Request: fold
Amino acid sequence: MPATSTDSAAKPLSGRVAVVTGSTSGIGLGIAHALAGAGADLVVNGLGDTDAIDLTCAALMAHGGRVIYDGGNLLDPAGAAGLVENSIASLGRVDILVNNAGIQHVCPIEDFPVDKWNAIIALNLSAAFHTIRTAFAPMKAAGYGRIINVASAHALVASPYKSAYVAAKHGVLGLTKTVALEGAQFGVTCNAICPGYVWTPLVENQISDTAAARGIDREAVIRDVLLAAQPTKRFATIEELGALAVFLCGPGGASITGAALPVDGGWTAQ
Reply:
């Protein structure tokens, strides 16, 4: 039965295939749910034990689309490229690529471990290059592609003790702009979502740890430490990021490309 206009409005990404890296938890999982809810089939990638990943995939399949898991190691260039290649082989195409996987390490630069620097650059920046490089020609040939790089407010501003992370995220933004220019005449857009602090289980754990370390209560950690730079004094949510991703991938996002889109409560407006 042909899709009605109502169906198209409710499921604007029906028939599309999306690859979301780092999508077994946190921001990536939130974006995956939003894309699946909009009708996309999904390739999930990220860390976790087998039972947890199976439950995650089952929850995503409840939206009605196809879902597969690929455990490709994004620290390895071949693993990052293979994620896209395997997705095309399994689901026939890749229309949407969300580069979300990342790691962080905080340390003064004179003591910053070289292995941590290399790993952060490899996962937060180089993996995006390898996935985009592999997906780009098929997207151009199809005349449609939506690439979203989950950067950070740290793609726009810096903080002390985060040299590798800030360097990688600034690099992601440069990569985003370059890919946007190369895809502009082929129906392929590339944008960077730049979150500030987002409410995730990882942040929840940081609150408890920081409160204990500083001898202050939970509310003080949220207000005076984590959200000190965010004028709204509230966390962004994974649902907000997911909604933005769906918009960028849908009809309304066709002319948005090469953009850094802060979702940071006003942090980078200061």
